[in-house]
Amino acid sequence: MNNMKYSFRQATAGDAVQIWKILEKAIKRRKEDGSKQWQDGYPNLSVIENDIKNSVGYVLVDEDIIVGYCAILINDEPAYANIKGSWLTNGDFVVYHRVAISEKYLGQGLAQIMLQHIEDFALKHNIYSVKVDTNFDNTGMLWILQKMSYHYCGEVIFRGSPRKAFEKILK
C-alpha cells in the first residue's frame, strides 16, 4: 500500500462527472452485494455537485486520475444528535459520507488510505473525533471500520433507515 503515490485534494466542478461515474459503479456493486444502501436514488450527480459547491467534496487521485471520493464535513450531521447508544465524545467532530473507490482500483487498500487522509484532515483542524455511519449490510465498509479501529457507538436514523454509527478518537 503505497500512500505516497496518491494525493488527496478538494474536488472541483470539473471533477463531478468522473466522481459520478465512480459512484454509479459503487451503487451497482452495493446492489450486487445484496445491500440496500444507495438503492433509492441517493447519492446522485446533484448531491456530488452540491458537495463540490459547498467545498466538502474530496478526491483521492493517482496522478490525474480520480480513484476515490468522499464528502467531509465538520460538526454537520443532524442525525447524530439522536443516536440510540452513545458517542465516545461530545465535542467537535469530522464526519464523512459517500465513500467510493473506482472499480479499477478495488482491493488495493485505497479506502483505508482515504480514511487516513480524512483523519489527517481532522487533525489539521485540531479535531480529534471522526464519526461515520453505514448500512447494516455494507460488509466492506464495516470491515474497513473495524480494521481502522473505529468503535461501534449505536444506531442513527439516516434518511428514514437505521444505520450503524461509529467513532474513532484520534491521538
UniProtKB/TrEMBL annotation:
Enzyme category, top tier: transferase
E.C. no: 2.3.-.-
GO MF terms, alphabetically ordered: acyltransferase activity
InterPro entries assigned to the protein according to its UniProt record, in alphabetical order: Acyl_CoA_acyltransferase (IPR016181), GNAT_dom (IPR000182)
Domain named N-acetyltransferase: residues: 6-171
PROSITE patterns: GNAT (PS51186)
A Pfam family this chain is assigned to: Acetyltransf_1
Species of the source: Sphingobacterium anhuiense
The name this protein goes by in its record: GNAT family N-acetyltransferase
Entries under CDD domains matching the protein: NAT_SF
